[in-house]
Design a protein that fits this description.
- By secondary structure, the chain is mostly helical.
- Helix content is 72%, strand content 0%.
- The protein contains six helices and no strands.
- Helix 1 runs parallel beside helix 4, helix 4 runs antiparallel to helix 5 and helix 5 runs antiparallel to helix 6.
- The chain starts with 6 loop residues before the first helix and ends in an 18-residue tail after the last helix.
Length: 184
């Protein structure tokens, strides 16, 4: 009995995982940001003093879409590596770091908790580093696909810290969103 798959079967397995993982990861990332009202249209966020290195807002949509697609591709590579040593641990590490990723926007943009978001992003950075190492052990290309994500997380961690430093009085402040009205 031959337990080895042909190269065609391996490519087909990867393609099936790719067709599931990339759209699901991108969609979940999009939903996390949208449901928490992330971005410049958020009234609370618009009120914050922006750090000097804060890029144009469109940068975040472009970068996160690319990073989520790369994360989905890396996950597909690992999931398609049936029988590979460390595959289950790599998948579990990915789930932990991705859960932290999805939690960050609701904490920062939704709850306006910059300090709590900083703790979450630091945990996410550590979990993403572990995931990158575990992915590289299963499939070196999968680990390499996560390196840009790690670099962006370092930058995002700095931004989170800088927002907190620039706006300490707005950490956790809830705004009603109502406009002030004056009778004349």
């Amino acid at each position: 009995m031959n337990l080895l798959a042909s190269s065609g079967q391996l490519r087909a397995s990867f393609m099936r995982w790719l067709l599931v993982c990339v759209p699901v990861i991108v969609l979940l990332g999009f939903l996390s940001g949208t449901l928490s009202q992330s971005g410049p249209d958020n009234p609370w966020f618009a009120e914050l003093v922006k750090p000097a290195v804060y890029p144009p807002p469109i940068t975040f949509a472009i970068v996160w879409t690319l990073l989520y697609a790369m994360m989905g591709t890396a996950l597909a590579l690992v999931l398609a590596a049936r029988g590979a040593r460390g595959r289950a641990a790599a998948g579990a590490a990915f789930a932990v770091q991705f859960a932290l990723n999805l939690a960050w926007s609701p904490i920062f943009f939704g709850a306006h908790r910059m300090t709590a978001a900083l703790v979450v992003i630091l945990l996410m950075l550590g979990a993403a580093a572990v995931t990158t190492v575990l992915f590289a052990r299963v499939r070196p290309v999968a680990g390499a696909l996560l390196v840009p994500y790690l670099l962006w997380l370092v930058f995002a961690t700095y931004l989170n810290f800088a927002f907190l430093q620039e706006n300490p009085g707005l950490d956790g402040v809830q705004r009603s969103g109502a406009a002030a009205r004056f009778d004349i």
